[in-house]
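Why do we bother with holo predictions? Because pocket geometry can differ from the apo form. Keep that in mind while you read this record for tryptophan.
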Amino acid sequence: MTAEGNDAAAARPPAPTRVLSGIQPTGRFHWGNYFGAIRQYIDLQTAGESYYFIADLHALTTVREPDRLRGLVHDAAVDLVALGLDPDRATLFVQSDVPEVTELTWLLMTVTPMGLLERCHAYKDKKTRGLPADAGLFTYPVLMSADILAYDATIVPVGEDQVQHIEVCRDLAGTFNHLYGEVFTLPKPRLVEGGARVPGTDGQKMSKSYDNTLDVFEDLAAQKKKIMRITTDSRPMEEPKNPDDDHLFALYALMAPESDRLKMADLYRRGGFGYGEVKKALAEAAAQFFAEARARRAALEADPQRIEAILSAGAGRAQAKARDVLDRARRACGLARGKAGKRLAGEKPSGKGGRL
Ligand code: ADP
Ligand code: TRP
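The structure, written out:
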């Protein structure tokens, strides 16, 4: 009977929770990145073992200036720790510090149907817009799959746009396991509650690509100016408004404490207020919301060796795990001569994420 059989499943201890996520260092983090991704990572670091990495290999498909990339990786690490990622609880590392992942990418590539990648939106969108795409962008979901499988992750917190890639990951892991035995743990995506889609200064989804971002650690005076320029409609002040379909209110609601949010919603419904007032309140609420993180960031910047030590310790822990998984995969598919496939006796399975 396999481990999937009822008796074995009933006898098996609950799967350990292993959380993993990556974030690309392609620009300074904005509010959308924080509320759509980073905040969840931080909340989940107490859920079990956790791995968070800065996806510099993925960023290479868009950032082609070496010094800028190095700077962005450093800033991302400092930002994450300043925002509350605790390196004593979570393993924080840089993707390229674990080269085992790129070897695993190749193994996965050999079981990846072209059609699966052709359907992936990052590549498909570029192609539809007639833009040139390289093989790095095309195979990006395979690298992402290796990122996840290398650490036996069970839960992957991501924004909605990444769910498709986790499905690809499960697909590839399933095919590999089917061919070579139970090598990989199948992960599950964990979507942000309510599917938060943070609006930008123009009301569209906040994104670096739309030049409508408000950055987490932006200079406060510059940020206030940007906030004062958030687009609003031209309805008269006295007209009551529905807070639920106003992007300025949506931003305020993310930043303000519950009681202020309720008061502001009331003001919207009553009417008789100007958007300028709301913008000022938003600037203050945002400054307050990130005040502690700003202070932590300043302290980290004053001690550059600390962030390097954190990343180096993280890489050591991550690499040890990835090495085990890669060895398991190499043995299973026949690369490691003279060794048995599948998991070795005494090697603990790391738990299965189960079906989506
Ligand atoms: P950008 O669109 O600025 O390039 P990324 O694609 O690098 O942002 O996003 C990194 C992470 O942040 C992803 O998990 C994504 O889902 C999340 N994210 C980005 N923008 C938003 C947004 N406006 N609302 C919610 N989540 C977002
Ligand atoms: N592709 C993800 C993004 O753009 C970043 C990423 C890379 C990732 N590898 C990952 C996220 C593994 C989760 C798991 O947001």
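The chain has two domains: 6-197+303-333, 218-289.
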